[in-house]
Design a protein that fits this description.
Five copies of one chain form a homopentamer. By secondary structure, chain A is mainly beta. Chain A is 5% helix and 40% strand. Chain A has one helix and six strands; from the N terminus they run βββββαβ. Chain A has a five-stranded antiparallel beta sheet with strand order 4-3-1-5-6. Chains A, B, C, D, E: One of its GO terms (cellular component) is carboxysome.
């Protein structure tokens, strides 16, 4: 998984029918040589801007949504505790 | 998912039979340390050149097309609203 | 998918039994910040050296070969038309 | 797989129900041009901080946990012997 | 797939039960802008140090081992002929 920081919500009016109702956020990858890379993830946990999150990517992301038919390749699976240092 | 900008259509006369009829576009990854990377995605939503889109990659891309038998690893799943900043 | 240029054939006498008879080519990724990366793909379309191709990667690559049991993660799915600019 | 060094545990109180009880660690990729990249993996082997581990990513990571329904894309599958040089 | 050079064997005494008996090697990615990246792959072909190999990654790697239950994401699928230039 990847550690990332929530930047902002991403709004998309024209999108796949199966994605209607899902919240999307822009994330910035945290720390290390890959820092600063941007990615978009679905968020069903309710992460707020500025929070650090754990992001699961690939086919495993669909497992978070309990739906095998959805075109999603990244999803927030947890919010990193504020006092957790890395 | 990845945020990207639609550059141009990609034309391929000699291609897999299962891809006939699909529209392909060249995309440029937006923002962050991965910016400028190019990728090709299938587009069933009808994104125009210059529009910013959400791209789903990997096995999840096949879910957008409702076809498990198609050799596609990237597809546009949404168009980012024009007034959405990131 | 990725746009790449066919460099050369790759010969491997000692390989997995399931790969016997498949043609492999070395590809160079085209354009953008990822340009110059090398990868090997199976080719069932018959692309020639110097041609620009569309490459599908990951589990979707197996869909091109209609065989679920084959250890292949990249395959040429189309040849980009010569007059297609990007 | 990737060779990485265990940095620290990652704590997440608000996370997917299916992840409760799993231990997560921050890893730093070792050696080569990808060195320094950070990633988070599930650990069921009990690796300690400073140990070098083998990390399996993608859909294969779910095989380590014997659970197909879990949103995990990286897991420690082995601890590299101390006297193993690379 | 990726072209890589076999560096050395990787020894791991504490590892997943399903991996016991498998040989692991450290590989260095060859050529192009991704050169020098290190990765670990399972080897069932018997590649020796210094040999150039074709590596298959992701879910397709499991196909090489005929076992769907194994946490492996990279495997050597062929040895590149010595007189093959690239």
């Amino acid at each position: 998984m990847i550690a990332a920081k929530v930047m902002d919500s991403i709004w998309s009016t024209r999108k796949a029918d199966s994605l209607v109702g899902l919240k999307f956020v822009m994330l910035e990858v945290l720390g290390g040589s890959d820092a600063g890379r941007l990615m978009i993830a679905a968020d069903t946990i309710g992460a707020g801007a500025g929070e650090r999150v754990i992001v699961c990517t690939g086919s495993s992301a669909r497992k978070m949504l309990d739906r095998e038919d959805i075109p999603i390749d990244a999803v927030i699976v947890g919010i990193i505790d504020e006092d957790c240092k890395f």
